[in-house]
Write a structure and sequence with these properties.
Blueprint (H helix, E strand, L loop, with lengths): L1 H14 L5 H4 L5 H22 L1 H5 L3 H29 L2 H7 L2 H12 L1 H4 L4 H24 L7 H31 L5 H28 L14 H29 L2 H6 L2 H15 L5 H19 L5 H6 L1
Helix pairs in contact: 1-12, 1-14, 3-5, 3-11, 3-12, 5-6, 5-10, 5-11, 6-9, 6-10, 6-14, 7-10, 9-15, 11-12
């Protein structure tokens, strides 16, 4: 349980970096951020795949289709929506909407995966979900209160809509990913992370080339090609995020998913929210206020509370 929790914490710390790139590159289209990140991820996966070629050859055609689905929805589409949300609504609002993932995943998986993982009685799950939900609401309220007067509310609304779409993508992704990992307990999480990187490569390459062709016809308003107006920063950020967030973060999450029930693992995505908030405040050069700190404390309490609850087999609950 605790080893799985530490892996989830490591994944959250690395995934928090994905919220930084749209803030550092606000003039870059969300498509270029998403395709660039996952093109770098796919290229990083190539030498890793060569080293792990024996175990990769053991994957079936169905496994590769599963990896392709996860790569498309959980990687490219998710980050496309998240980047667009951050660029339109700033960092805090999308971060808080994404922060509802622990609650959403727990609610979905506690019903969906009860036969496999057992079910956490709602009476035990409710306090942790309530603490997480209230904590997220407190942080969100404090951040929204700090908005500059005259902010573009339409842009914020559109950003919120994109963030909700990202939540939908990443509610599906960990559930589907956990299905595969739990059904293939003899397979290496490292191999599965590399497989997803390989599956992402052709999708990202096609998307990046499509963006370049579209931009060359004037579709991006004269955007500098192929790496934008700040090519060095863009390339470095894409490579760093691809390695730490996409590959290493996925590896850590796979390790956690094999050790933890999906209901609890879903709540541990809160570590990503906490990390993203910490990085955002570092970029601002200011400390969070009292309400924000109180909200963060509630998030931590909610996660800690959740870890104390143990799923019960359905038969045991029925007998009780």
């Amino acid at each position: 349980m605790w080893i799985g929790t530490l892996y989830a914490l490591a994944a959250g710390l690395m995934w928090g970096f994905v919220f930084v790139a749209p803030l550092l590159l606000p003039d870059y289209p969300a498509a270029l951020l998403s395709f660039g990140r996952y093109l770098a991820f796919g290229l990083i996966a190539l030498p890793l795949a060569w080293l792990d070629r024996r175990r990769l050859r053991a994957l079936t055609r169905a496994d590769w289709w599963a990896a392709l689905e996860l790569a498309l929805i959980g990687n490219i589409v998710y980050y496309l929506l998240l980047s667009a949300a951050i660029q339109r609504a700033g960092g805090p609002l999308p971060t808080m909407i994404i922060g509802t993932l622990p609650v959403v995943i727990a609610l979905v998986s506690n019903r969906r995966d009860a036969r496999r993982d057992g079910r956490l009685p709602w009476a035990r799950l409710a306090p942790s979900l309530l603490a997480i939900g209230v904590g997220i609401a407190m942080v969100n309220r404090a951040e929204l209160a700090a908005l500059a007067p005259g902010a573009d509310l339409a842009a914020y609304a559109l950003g919120a809509l994109f963030a909700v779409g990202a939540v939908a993508c990443w509610t599906w992704y960990p559930l589907r990913n956990a299905d595969w990992l739990r059904a293939h307990g003899n397979r290496s999480p490292t191999t599965w992370a590399t497989a997803q990187g390989l599956a992402t490569l052709p999708l990202a390459l096609a998307g990046y080339l499509g963006f370049l062709i579209w931009s060359s016809t004037g579709g991006a308003g004269g955007f500098a090609l192929p790496f934008g107006p700040r090519p060095a920063l863009y390339v470095v950020l894409m490579v760093l995020i691809a390695f730490f967030a996409s590959w290493l973060g996925t590896l850590c999450w796979n390790q956690a998913s094999q050790r933890l029930p999906t209901t609890l693992a879903g709540q541990l995505i809160v570590f990503e929210t906490l990390a993203a908030l910490a990085y955002a405040f570092m970029l601002r050069g200011q400390a969070p206020g009292g309400a924000t700190l109180a909200g963060i404390a509630l998030l931590v309490v909610g996660v800690s509370w959740a870890l104390r609850a143990k799923p019960e087999p359905l038969a045991a609950q029925a007998a009780h």
